TrEMBL record:
EC number: 4.1.1.23
UniProt-listed Pfam families: OMPdecase (PF00215)
Organism: Muriicola jejuensis
Keywords: Decarboxylase, Lyase, Pyrimidine biosynthesis
Alphabetized CDD domains for the sequence: OMP_decarboxylase_like
Protein name: Orotidine 5'-phosphate decarboxylase
Length: 278
């Protein structure tokens, strides 16, 4: 998928919501555990109920890898279902990979070719040769961790390195990579006030912003500091949507949560348009 197709979907659905498919067998409705593939059964019901309100899904691979071969098979079925039934949806493998070049090439192949995701999250710590193998794939996006939503982000990411906070160095250095137009960056919603600084370095790139919902980030603040003329945001929420109910009505309850966020996003898009007009 390319940026124009993503933007077209955002404008049409009036949403920049990404739903995280962090499917946890300890949290899904118990009746689904009778299904031959409970993870896929849950994901399919969630996707069918919420696709009108979001533009992206982001399975975090940890929740699939945790269940071994069955988990990986469920991930594979989920991406195949999305690509077949809802090809307009942007798909992100939240895998946070990062390794030396020849290994990174294999990771890129796994997520972009074999599983056919549109994007994968990558850790920047190992530098250029660990990221560029992902960037070689046309119409695919590499989403680099820059300033994450967790408290531990302050251990390194905001520390000074040669007179500059490390997350800023990550952003600036990544812009020098070949095909840097295929980059997006992770900035946590819990760090919304940093978005002003982030936008000085990457004014046009899309940001993946997790942390609205269960982690308490504010959608309004994220939009105030991070939204661009071309939106530039994919805001993720996982647990708050997925586990809105553990009963037979779980898919409907998830849809209602997703619709609430979509309505708030529609309002933010309206505000952006009226400020552009004035
Ligand atoms: O900085 C980061 C990077 C990734 N995540 C991931 O996003 C979701 C958030 O889930 P919620 O249930 O909405 O809190 C999850 O997969 C994280 O691993 C993040 O939270 N922060």
């Amino acid at each position: 998928m390319n940026t124009s197709q993503l933007l077209e979907q955002i404008e049409r659905k009036k949403s920049f919501l990404c739903i995280g498919l962090d499917t946890d067998l300890d949290k899904i409705p118990p009746h689904l555990l009778e299904e031959p593939d409970p993870i896929f059964a849950f994901n399919k019901a969630i996707i069918d109920a919420t696709h009108h309100a979001c533009v992206a899904y982001k399975p975090n691979t940890a929740f699939y890898e945790a269940y071994g071969m069955k988990g990986w098979a469920a991930l594979s079925k989920t991406i195949e279902y999305l690509n077949t039934s809802y090809p307009e949806i942007f798909t992100i493998a939240d895998a946070k990979r990062g390794d030396i070049g020849n290994t990174a090439t294999r990771y890129a192949q796994a997520f972009f070719k074999d599983l056919s995701f549109d994007a994968v999250t990558v850790a920047p710590y190992m530098g250029r040769d660990s990221v560029e193998p992902f960037l070689r794939f046309e119409d695919r996006f590499t989403i680099l961790l820059a300033l994450t939503s967790n408290p531990g982000a302050f251990d390194f990411q905001t520390r000074m390195s040669d007179g500059q906070e490390l997350y800023k160095r990550v952003l600036e250095t990544a812009l020098t990579y070949e095909h840097s137009d295929r980059l997006m960056f992770v900035i946590g919603a819990t760090k919304a006030e940093y978005l002003k600084e982030v936008r000085k370095i990457v004014p046009d790139h899309f940001l993946l912003v997790p942390g609205v919902g269960a982690q308490g980030g504010s959608l309004e603040e994220v939009c105030r500091f991070g939204m661009t003329d071309r939106v530039g945001l994919l805001v993720n929420s996982s647990r708050k949507i997925l586990y809105a109910s553990q009963g037979a009505d779980f898919a409907r309850a998830a849809a209602m949560e997703a619709e609430t966020l979509q309505k708030a996003m529609e309002e933010e898009l309206r505000k952006r348009r009226s400020s552009q007009a004035s």
